[in-house]
Specification:
69% of the residues lie in helices and 0% in strands. The protein is mainly α. It has one domain (7-83). Helix 2 (17-30) runs antiparallel to helix 3 (36-43). The longest helix is centred in the C-terminal third of the chain and has 19 residues, at 65-83. The model has no long low-confidence stretch (mean pLDDT 93).
């Protein structure tokens, strides 16, 4: 399904279509409806650019214990490969 927004609505809101998509992506990430990857794909931005958009809006990167554990496990695996 495509979402169509009339140009006059965008003009009234003083926002471009690209800016609106970024706003939506940031909001959905902030409320936990989209992951970082999903939100940045929606916004059509690379990782760093999306993180900059989050920072502009004072939205913090969501990083919890599970993320830390996953990162640590990945680091262990990488270290194991280098030792081989």
């Amino acid at each position: 399904m495509d979402l169509l927004i009339k140009e006059e609505i965008l003009e009234k809101a003083e926002i471009t279509a690209e800016e609106l998509i970024i706003e939506i992506a940031v909001h959905l990430y902030d409320i936990g409806r989209l992951s970082m990857g999903q939100a940045r794909n929606l916004a059509q931005l690379d990782q760093i650019s999306f993180q900059k958009e989050l920072a502009k809006r004072d939205v913090y990167i969501q990083y919890d214990i599970k993320d830390l554990e996953t990162d640590l496990e990945n680091l262990r695996k990488l270290k194991g490969r280098k030792a081989s």
